[in-house]
Amino acid sequence: MVDLSRVEIVLLDMDGTLTDSVSRITEYFAALDLELHGRMLSPDAYKKYVGPPLADSMRDMEPDADEQRVAFMVARYREMYWPNAIDVPLYPGIREMLEKLRARGYRLGLATTKSQEMSLQILQHLGIADFFEVVSGVIPDTSRVDKPAVIAWALQQFGVEEPQDKRRVVMVGDRFYDIEGAQINGISAILTTWGDTTQPGEERGAVQVVSTPAELLSALGVHPGKN
């Protein structure tokens, strides 16, 4: 088992990990599917689109789509979703978890495939922006468009480059994309399941699986009841 006692930097995913945005996201994927394809599946059918890059989700939704069509679908989804994207709640215990981690001296970063602009707006709206030293989200039309890239950029901002330094970092998220992105960048990952978005088998590669923010604190050696 990986020694998490060395960890000093915690990278956190947003949707399904910090924010309870799953129902909002699946609602707009369903609306997009209805508009473009005349179908609307059950909300659970769209949960797999919480986490991966939008373009990947659109290719899955419409396998024959060319890149121009994918770009159109991404733009249309953002047009529908963004006006209502900011007003999402934190999962229970998240604010307290962030407070405890910062009080214990952990450096926190956000690593998400939500856009950089929207991520900053959501953090500010929720009043938790000051907890994060680094915010790394997607910037369209750049190389920062998927999980490995946003994690890599976050590591650069923290000055983490050498393999021995990467032992001080852990990625925390609810999907395989978080685990895979961490592995590609040579860091460990913890899988969270409190967001009800994790698909079967996605725990492979995670050093630990936690079902509550309190369990995450314990995994990092932070007693939930103490600063």
From TrEMBL:
Give the source species.
Mobiluncus holmesii ATCC 35242
Q: Does the keyword Hydrolase apply?
A: yes
The protein here is known as HAD hydrolase, family IA, variant 1
Query: What Pfam families does UniProt report for this protein, alphabetically?
Result: HAD_2 (PF13419)
PANTHER family to which the protein is assigned, alphabetical: 5'-NUCLEOTIDASE, PHOSPHOGLYCOLATE PHOSPHATASE
Gene3D superfamilies, per the entry: HAD superfamily/HAD-like, Putative phosphatase, domain 2
Q: What InterPro entries does the record point to?
A: HAD-like_hydrolase_sf (IPR050155), HAD-like_sf (IPR036412), HAD_2 (IPR041492), HAD_sf (IPR023214), PGP-like_dom2 (IPR023198)
Q: Which residues cross the membrane?
A: none
Which keywords fit this entry according to its UniProt record?
Hydrolase
Q: Which GO terms describe its molecular function?
A: hydrolase activity; protein tyrosine kinase activity
GO CC annotation terms, alphabetical: cytosol
Q: Which SUPFAM superfamilies match?
A: HAD-like
